[in-house]
Amino acid sequence: MKLPLSPPELVGLLTKTPPYELVHAMRMQEGGLVHGDYMHWDELRHRPTPEGVQHETWWLAVRMARQGLLKQLPLLDKYNQPMVVAMPEPVLRDLHHIDQDAAGRVSLPGDVVNPADRD
User: Fold this and answer.
1) Is residue 81 part of a domain?
2) pLDDT tens digits, 61-113
3) In a domain, 89, yes or no
4) Domain hosting residue 22, numbered range
5) Residue 107 counted as domain residue
6) Element at 86 (helix H, strand E)
7) What backbone phi and psi angles, to 5 degrees, belong to 17?
8) Residue 8: which residues within 8 A CB-CB, separation 6 or more?
9) Is the dihedral of CA 7, 8, 14, 17 positive or negative?
10) Concatenated DSSP letters for 44-76?
11) How many domains does one find in the chain?
12) In a domain, 119, yes or no
């Protein structure tokens, strides 16, 4: 499996992006989603940008919109930093449906342990 391309550094994007471009991109951004989907930088960079917005500025607007959705996990990444995950509305809704629809219905086709396998 090919690893996705790492996104541009946010600090670098913030320093080089003119404020008016960022404001324009943020006004055109629909929360942390892109056309209703949660996209990684590696996907977003291949999509057509909103009018008048560069890919890196668009990514910065998406990342800033996701900041309020981030939850820290009790796991560390390869740089020994806490891992974070964003939980936008579509993800929460899908998890809710999984919880409702799978409750009490997850099963295996046969016995996991039978009397011959015990001890």
Assistant:
1) yes
2) 999 999 988 999 999 999 999 999 888 888 888 889 888 887 766 666 666 66
3) yes
4) 10-102
5) no
6) strand 82-86
7) -85, 120
8) 41, 56, 59
9) negative
10) HTTSPPPTT--HHHHHHHHHHHHGGGEEEEEEE
11) 1
12) no
